[in-house]
Structures are given as structure tokens and as C-alpha cells.
């Protein structure tokens, strides 16, 4: 069982917006602004999309945005495109002895 | 450009050991914290271990604590993961990954990943 909770799947049509949630506790998501989001296409390594809750690395489309409220972080993808179809994972710093926790992942289907 | 190339995976019997390596290039290796993250077949990402840039602080997932050891050789730009007492549930692709900073807190962000090496634990 993953430390952070994500929906197993979400879907949307091209051009629409979708939001993926990531729920933790005050020991991780809620207590610190060190939430990251990763995109993984089948058979590929993950790619950093968002870090520190809402920052985009250079080269990542501004269609991707992140936010946080309480113990829940969210990734929003606007103007859905076919190439956005992938698995998405959140992660967070945790003040437990383990340091980093991941969510279970969300499969995004572009209809 | 940043390159992370893992090696050392393979098929091993339960209870066996392996030493995974990750050759890093394209950045000043000694300035960054480094991670190992694994992914079981058809499953999600699982963080495994982290080592600070100077090698002095190490963190482990509860599932591997006492069995796995992360280390690094800053002279040769190489990250290691010694995996002992392997179990079937350790079967996974093991990714070497670069933290975004040398400072532990900021290095929890992983900005580059290798392509992974597959470890299969089977009799």
C-alpha cells in the first residue's frame, strides 16, 4: 500500500482539462512544499513535470500545473493532448525516517 | 547532457545478492544527492534509498532496510546499491536517479532518471 493516495485512473478528451489528486498526511504532503509529479510513458523512465508543489522544470509545457490544499496536492493538465496519455506519480518529502514517499500512480487515458 | 547508466541486474535465487552500479556523466556527480527507485512489473514506483552528495547521510525504505546498502564513489562518478537477502518481491526494474540538489531536503526532487536495470528473484 502506497503512502500517498492517487486515483487509479482518470480520463479526458482532447482539449479538456483533468486533475489528478495526491493525498497524504501532515507528515508529508500537508507539512512541506516538497511535492513532485512525474510522467511515465510505457517502457520509459519517469520524467519530472512539477516540483516544489507548483514549479515547472525548463522544457515542460505550461499546460501542466500543480497546487496543494491541506494534505492533498493536485496536478492539472489543460488542453489535453494524445501524448499526455501516460502514468502519473506524485511524490513528497516525508519527515519519517524514510525521506521520500510515492503515490500509487494514476493512469491517464486521452479518449 | 546528464546520463545515468545502470548495470548489474540479472536473475538471482531467493536469498542471493547483487551489486547494482550506476555510471553518471554530464554533471558534477559529487555535488548532488542520488537515489535508487524501483518498479515491480506492472506496478508503481517505489522509492528505495538515498545518499547525500558527500556520502555521509543515507536513507532507506522500510521494505529494504537492513538488506540493501547504498554507496557512492565520487572519484569515479558511480553510484552503487548492494542488495542482499533478496526476496521474490524485490523483483523490479531498479532506476538510478539524480536529486536536484546536494542538500538533502532539496534533493528529494528527482530531476533525471536512468533507463533502469532489471533484477529478477526466482528459483
Describe the model.
The complex is a heterodimer of chains A (111) and B (123). With 111 residues, chain A is mainly beta. Helices cover 0% and strands 43% of the residues of chain A. Chain A has no helices and nine strands. In chain A, strands 1, 3, 4, 7, 8 and 9 form a six-stranded mixed sheet that branches. In chain A, strands 2-6-5 form a three-stranded antiparallel sheet, with no helix packed on it. Chain A is globular, with a radius of gyration of 13 Å. The mean pLDDT of chain A is 95. The model of chain B has no long low-confidence stretch (mean pLDDT 96). In chain B, 0% of the residues lie in helices and 50% in strands. Chain B has no helices and eleven strands. In chain B, strand 5 (45-51) and strand 6 (58-60) form a beta hairpin. In chain B, the strands form two sheets. In chain B, strands 2, 4, 5, 6, 9, 10 and 11 form a seven-stranded mixed sheet that branches. With 123 residues, chain B is mainly beta. At the A-B interface, strand 3, strand 7 and strand 8 of A face strand 5 and strand 10 of B.
Largest sheet of chain A: 6 strands, mixed
Helix and strand composition category of chain A: mainly beta
The gross shape of chain B turns out to be globular
Low-confidence stretches of chain A: none
Specify Rg of chain A, calculated over alpha carbons. 13 Å
Average pLDDT rating of chain A: 95
Q: Helix count of chain B?
A: 0
- The chain-level mean pLDDT of chain B equals 96
**Percent range for helical residues of chain B?**
under 10%
- The number of E-state strands of chain A comes to 9
Q: Pick out the low-confidence regions of chain B.
A: none
N to C succession of SSEs of chain B: EEEEEEEEEEE
The termini of chain B sit apart by: 40 Å
